[in-house]
Design goal:
The structure is a single chain. This protein has 179 residues and is mainly alpha-helical. 42% of the residues lie in helices and 10% in strands. It has helices spanning 2-8, 32-40, 53-63, 84-97, 112-124, 144-156, 171-178, and strands spanning 47-48, 71-72, 105-109, 130-135, 161-163. The strands form 2 sheets. The chain has a 3-stranded parallel beta sheet, sandwiched between helices. Strands 1-2 form a two-stranded parallel ribbon.
Length: 179
């Protein structure tokens, strides 16, 4: 783990002010403008991440410029596919936005464990609509065969749709999924 963090964060992995590693330059998978569009359309969002809180907060706050985003990270909840962290994220979104508990939840993820999290959430809270959306990570899009296999694996665990990028989950797509 220390070797990975030295490459990912840099030689001073405990101080985000001095990070120089891959985290500083890795391609971002969303842009703030996408989240702004969701917010303006009254689509509420948050993050349930398998990354450490420090790494996820760095990306969200420093790289994307988000102010106090809702974030449940790896040390805040059991690992996926346990849905506890997803429940915590939804609860924070509802509390912050004073939403009723019946609002459908769309969870976009790029791993089988992400989609299994949605399945388990549905099993434990069947009174709510839980919709899983698969996102092909960049590495899975390097070849058509691998992308097809990866998408099939996400659909196997009940992804309603599989997209190449989370920003393809636009307002029209969200409306179609909910209806």
């Amino acid at each position: 783990m220390a070797f990975f963090q030295s490459r990912y964060r840099g030689p001073d992995p405990d101080n985000p002010d001095h990070w120089t590693g891959y985290i500083c330059h890795e391609p971002l998978l969303i842009q703030p403008s996408y989240l702004d569009q969701l917010t303006q359309a009254n689509v509420r969002w948050g993050f349930f991440s398998g990354a450490t809180k420090g790494s996820a907060a760095y990306i969200l706050q420093r790289r994307l410029g988000l102010q106090e985003p809702i974030l449940v990270a790896m040390e805040d909840a059991p690992g996926k596919p346990d849905p506890t962290g997803l429940f915590m994220t939804v609860e924070q979104i509802e509390k912050q936005n004073q939403l009723e508990a019946a609002v459908p939840v769309i969870y976009a993820g790029d791993t089988v464990a992400d989609l299994q999290t949605v399945q388990r959430a549905r099993d434990l809270q069947p009174e709510r609509t839980w919709i899983g959306v698969g996102i092909l990570p960049p590495h899975a899009q390097q070849s058509a065969d691998y992308a097809q296999t990866y998408a099939a694996n996400l659909k196997r665990v009940e992804a309603k749709i599989v997209l190449n990028n989370v920003e393809q989950l636009d307002l029209n797509q969200i409306q179609q999924l909910i209806n």
